[in-house]
Specification:
- The chain has 318 residues and is of the alpha/beta class.
- Helix content is 36%, strand content 10%.
- The chain has 11 helices and 8 strands.
- Helix 7 packs across helix 8.
- The longest helix has 15 residues.
Length: 318
């Protein structure tokens, strides 16, 4: 198995089911990508798994050469639901183990059985007259984490970690974790540099993975802020001209040079190739500082905003 998480990975959120197998297979075969980031909530793990296993069956890559991450959804935080949820994702992906399995959000929601709805998403029961999010206040993180540790004990996950955890969440987790979190996956891009959180994690040997590394506008439909265009920033455009690269490549190179893994997503083969062609040039310290200076503390993925449209804001970042 890989000893270290690859810095470049393929994000699979919002890759359509009818394209997911082809996109994943192409990324592995043609672009030499070995890091695939998945989640129950993305609703395409069956198709992503087909792409992975097609590449394995054709001898393009071995399972041990891949790094596959998946995530525990919010409705499965109770101890008794963690193992079945993990096994469900493994079954869908056609795999025997995860390289990394993480808690998707520090947000426990009321359980929804697989046979009722899968993936269950945010709303507890969409068929009611007043469909809304329903929290589970009897699923504390320390008990969820105990079951996450059991996944490692049983060989179902080589490593475990978290997503969307702030410093306070991490301090609490570190106070009782028998198996420390390997990583924290959070929204990171030049508009949201989160320097203090990144340093906190790195100082404690918690790897940081950046999702939405291009300041994705994918959250606009959820109530996110769509009035900003990172790739149009003058500093990014100038660095792209200077290095003969695309603006996206400049931003992604910045992410890698910070020591974080990045998991950009695209279904477009041209964009995929561009996104992953960033290891053959370097930004100077001054250039890195220019990009970092674009920080606006602008968060696109904020359940404190978009969950308000589902009956209850959950301001985990405030």
């Amino acid at each position: 198995m890989p000893s270290e998480i690859p810095l470049l990975g393929l994000g699979t959120w919002k890759i359509a089911k009818d394209k997911a197998q082809e996109v994943v297979y192409h990324a592995i075969k043609e672009l030499n990508i070995r890091h695939i980031d998945c989640a129950c909530d993305y609703g395409n793990e069956v198709e992503v798994g087909r792409g992975i296993n097609q590449a394995i069956s054709e001898g393009i890559v071995t399972r041990e050469e891949l790094w596959v991450t998946s995530k525990l959804w919010n409705t499965y935080h109770r101890q008794e639901h963690v193992l079945p949820a993990a096994r469900k994702s493994l079954q869908d992906l056609g795999l025997e183990y995860f390289d990394l399995y993480v808690i998707h959000f520090p947000i426990p929601l009321k359980f929804v059985p697989f046979e009722v709805r899968y993936p269950p998403e945010w709303i507890h029961d969409p068929t009611t007259p007043n469909p809304r999010i329903e929290m589970d206040e009897q699923a504390p993180t320390h008990l969820t984490w105990k079951s996450m540790e059991e996944l490692v004990d049983q060989g179902l996950a080589r490593r475990i970690g978290v997503c969307n955890f702030n410093v306070q969440h991490l301090m609490d987790l570190l106070s009782y974790a028998r198996i420390r979190p390997f990583s924290n996956q959070v929204e990171l891009h030049p508009y949201l540099t989160q320097n203090a959180l990144v340093k906190f994690c790195q100082d404690r040997n918690i790897h940081v993975t950046a999702y939405s590394p291009l300041a994705s506008n994918s959250y606009i439909e959820l109530g996110g802020d769509g009035g900003h265009r990172l790739l149009d920033e003058a500093a990014v455009q100038e660095l792209a001209r200077r290095h003969g690269r695309t603006p996206a490549q400049i931003v992604l190179r910045w992410g890698v040079q910070r020591g974080t893994s990045i998991i950009p997503k695209s279904s477009n083969p041209v964009h995929l190739a561009e996104n992953f062609a960033i290891l053959d040039f370097t930004l100077s310290e001054e250039e890195m500082a220019q990009v970092t200076a674009l920080n606006k503390n602008l968060r696109f993925n904020d359940p404190g905003v978009y969950c308000a449209f589902m009956g209850g804001a959950i301001p985990i970042f405030n």
